[in-house]
Amino acid sequence: MKKKKKRKKGDDKLVHFFIFQFFVVFFYTVKFLPSILYPFISRLAGLVIFYTMNTSRRLILKNMDIVYGDIISRKEKVKMAKCLLTGIVLSLCECIQVAKITDKQLVDMVVIEGEENLKKALGEEKGVVGISPHMGNFPRLQAVLAKKGYPATYFSRPPSGRHLAKFFKKLTASENVPLIYVINRRQAIIEAHRWVQNRGMLCFYIDQHDNKGVEVEFFGRNVFAPAGAASFARKYDCPVLGLFTYRMPDGRQKIIIEGPYKLQKTDNIEEDVRVNTAFFLKRIEHYVRLYPEHWYSWLHKRFPGLY
């Protein structure tokens, strides 16, 4: 049996550089195109991705099989997968659009339900923890919160490749969107504690697998989920909000802010973190069931051991 050749570091750097070049061309092309063309471009690109990227297509449909079984037909799953990929491309186009519109135009493209929950939670001046899934145009959710003056930040992993990571950091900085980059884990945690101590809102994406997290139930399966949100909320006794977003039929973005949630707090710290994390995942599951074609983690191996 032949051994697989290991990819050299130089090869990786070359691949990352070409990806960076492609993205820059895509970025400026989309930026200068009329926004009215974005839906058409997205539908076309979504179909191309569905039919050419076999690994991604198989993963999406496998996840849907795990979640839905025979409840919905293969035809419906395929349709949902195409909508998902179209939505991802459209969200990327909309994120690029932020660079060419005013703050007011961006905010006017959004409908926020439950904004009073955010104002009330911040008014307690204890810091706030937010939980979110990778759903809808979640980067624009972050941008909208920043443009409206809310002290909210999310953890973010920069893309692979030095050039692309630098490009993204420069772009988010130009739009004044605060992020905590998880490059140095220890430093990121220090920044996160400082953010809560300064009475800001620290938000976590908790819908993907974390083998260092806690075991909870998600869509009827036992999975491991990040425990950071529950841990921070317990440590600082601060309110927790759920932030969810999806695209409405008219093209505008709907942001739902719910809570503060009623959390368990006993003498058993580990059990409290597990119970509260399980509750957070139930809220995410609720919204994924409502808007499945908007959940981007269909592209993630969310149920290890079943692939």
Care to describe what's here?
This protein is α/β, with parallel strands linked by helices and 307 residues long. The chain has one domain: Glycerol-3-phosphate (1)-acyltransferase (3-Layer(aba) Sandwich). The protein contains eleven helices and nine strands. The strands form two sheets. A seven-stranded mixed sheet has the order 1-9-8-2-5-3-4, sandwiched between helices. A hairpin with a 2-residue loop joins strand 6 (214-218) and strand 7 (221-225). Helix 2 (38-52) crosses helix 4 (74-97) and helix 3 (54-68) crosses helix 4. The model has no long low-confidence stretch (mean pLDDT 91).
SSE layout and pairing:
Layout: H1 9-32, H2 38-52, H3 54-68, H4 74-97, H5 103-108, E1 110-113, H6 115-123, E2 128-132, H7 138-147, E3 152-156, H8 162-174, E4 179-181, H9 185-197, E5 201-205, E6 214-218, E7 221-225, H10 228-236, E8 240-247, E9 253-258, H11 269-290
Parallel strand pairs: 1-9, 2-5, 2-8, 3-4, 3-5
Antiparallel strand pairs: 6-7, 8-9
Helix pairs in contact: 2-4, 3-4, 10-11
